[in-house]
Protein 1
Amino acid sequence: FQYLKRFDQGCDLDAFWYEALSVEGSPVECLQLFLLHCGIVDPSWAELRNFTWFLNIQLRDCEASVFCNPDFVQDTLNGF
């Protein structure tokens, strides 16, 4: 949710890192963003769960990768 929220606001996601146990927004806002970005017009709860699960794993792996660390890559992969 935090990444999607910042993406919609046009923030630089390269500089953002998720902080465990941090809470932002309301459950309604969270659901609205998931519905907007999941890519399915009328998703089931299972489809929303799969979307959030997959997105979470991808973002966690991205944060853990040295190749996605802006301090390591400098400006060579800007926006990647």
Note: The two ends are 19 Å apart (CA to CA).
Protein 2
Amino acid sequence: MARVFVYGTLKKGQPNYKHMINTAKGLAKFQGRGRTVEKYPLVIAGKYNIPYMLNIPGRGHRVAGEIYSVDDQMLRFLDEFEGCPDMYQRTLMRIEVVEWEGKGGVGEARAAAEGVVECFVYSTMTYPPEWVGLPYHDSYDSSGKHGLSYVLRESR
């Protein structure tokens, strides 16, 4: 199992969460909530109002999201869904645990007690330069006060 941190449309209550609970795509087990240890710019960009974490450490905000344990099948699905490695790149980042529900072995307990876990995160280094000038968010909600409604893939 791999640990993945999601900060956008794959979170609970967001438009693409349905994929995280679709066992035909693999297994994803909610472990808890967290936020990036480092600051990153989280922007909503493009004509479909997609949330992107720009891989510019030290700039922006500590981004809030959810931590999941996923099996290899779900990780492959997420790579494809996220357009990895062209649109997003999957990299390891340190995530501070804010709330932990994860149950598991000694490693899980130690990680939760220490308050920081390493997770795969889909961020991007391949973005138009003007995105750096967009407003930065510390968390994403598709129906947030930003007023930028996410456009589902099936509606594009």
Note: The chain has one domain: 2-93+104-135.
Protein 3
Amino acid sequence: MLFLKGGWELDESKKEAALRETIEEAGVRGIVGGKLGKRSFKSKTHDTFYEGYMFPLLVEEQHEFWPEQNVRQRTWMSVSEAREVCQHWWMKEALDRLVTISR
């Protein structure tokens, strides 16, 4: 599951940004599925709101090294474990939507 935080460049689509972010932040590459949800959130460092989009990702490659590996941790877990550690209701909602469409 990927939670894209609205950090896409002007010359890329949201799905292209999601692919780029998966490599930068988690060191994985795969197939991005359809949008699971959208959420507005306030920046922790700036006094502004951003849009975040949630997409599922079917992981096809896992890299041993990636750009943000010193500041991010990649953890594989079950759906129930993921639901327990989701910090926001909208993340749980996106996870529930993914489980529903996967059945």
Note: Strands lie at 2-4, 28-32, 37-42, 49-55, 57-62.
